[in-house]
Amino acid sequence: MIEDPRLLSIREGFARPTAKQVAAFRDVPTGFVCDAMDGRGGMGTAISPLLDAHIVGCAIVAENGPEGNLATLGAVHIMQAGDVIIAAMRGGQTVAAAGDMVLAMIRNKGGAGFVTDGPMRDLTGIRDVGLPAWCSGLNPNSPYATGPGRVGYGASVGGQTVESGDIIVADENGVVVVPHAQIDTVIARLDAVRAAEISLEAKVKAGFSEQAKIVEMLADGRAVIED
């Protein structure tokens, strides 16, 4: 028999990205970031933006239960300016992870944005607050601040493992997680990704459409055209 867990556990001593590392992702499309991570890193399609925006910041993971928000409130308590709160709901879709008032508190502390794998509510108010948010949809039901919950650790969100201290990049296409240990490697690859994208875009605008790989596959028999 185990003892009941603490209602809330908070860890503040996780490694944070430097301001220079965060700045390296400013205005970088999420697609470029994924390309720099071998085409991976994006959260599941269900997590989509409520407002059109591009953000980048340090992840503060709030691990809630499927109907709770105590960890989210704890994350607001310890967050720093520029952070992105990641509210994990353990797959819960029956209550809103947050509404306009929680987002207003995050904005008031200088937060960059809010991401959850659960729904949200108070859309009109959220638009007035103006803080970028990504979620699975909308639901008017209220969460309970009863715990248990953990802040400053990690959680699975949208098919990605997110640790506090990772970098979050999010835009109209979705949310990407850059693991803390890979930040410098991903930054080093971004220039090559940009160059390849610019080159291909120029070719396509000039009329390019040939698919060399398909031509090669047809030539060597790996692909066939059937009548």
From TrEMBL:
Signal peptide range: none
Species whose genome carries this gene: Cognatiyoonia koreensis
Cofactor: Mg(2+); a divalent metal cation
Domain of life: Bacteria
Keywords, sorted A to Z: Magnesium, Metal-binding
Residues reported to bind Mg(2+): D122
Entry keyword Metal-binding: yes
Entries under InterPro entries matching the protein: RraA/RraA-like (IPR005493), RraA/RraA-like_sf (IPR036704)
Pfam families: RraA-like
Protein name per the record: Putative 4-hydroxy-4-methyl-2-oxoglutarate aldolase
GO molecular function, one term: metal ion binding
